[in-house]
Design brief:
Blueprint lengths: L6 H53 L13 H31 L1
Helix pairs in contact: 1-2
InterPro entries: ABC1_TM_dom (IPR011527), ABC1_TM_sf (IPR036640)
Protein name: ABC transporter B family member 5
Keywords: Glycoprotein, Membrane, Repeat, Transmembrane, Transmembrane helix, Transport
């Protein structure tokens, strides 16, 4: 009799746990997009701050520094774009996944 429960008790427990799992699914459906949005906003702000800091450093360089081919305006723009994309990938996806895994 330890493992036997009457049918009405089984039905009640089944409905209870099914309701809990449906509620968890609905909460996840709402929280996950908010979570990804907030990490995207944080990543965008970080990229903006890094680009601003890099631009400030480039502006204060001596004129002769810009004569080097690796320091041309095109190379600097490409480097800023590539580095920003790499950082956005790290902050947006990897960090969000790490935080999500640590939280659960």
């Amino acid at each position: 009799t330890t493992f036997f429960e009457p049918p009405h008790a089984l039905r009640h427990d089944s409905r209870h746990w099914a309701t809990i799992f449906v509620l968890l699914g609905v909460i996840s459906l709402i929280v996950y997009p908010v979570h990804m949005y907030l990490f995207a906003v944080a990543g965008g702000r970080l990229i903006r701050r890094i680009r601003s800091m890099c631009f400030e450093k480039v502006v204060h360089m001596e004129v002769g520094w810009f004569d080097e081919p690796e320091n041309s305006s095109g190379a600097m723009g490409a480097r800023l774009s590539a580095d920003a994309s790499l950082i956005r990938t790290l902050v947006g996806d990897s960090l969000a996944l790490t935080v999500k895994n640590l939280a659960s």
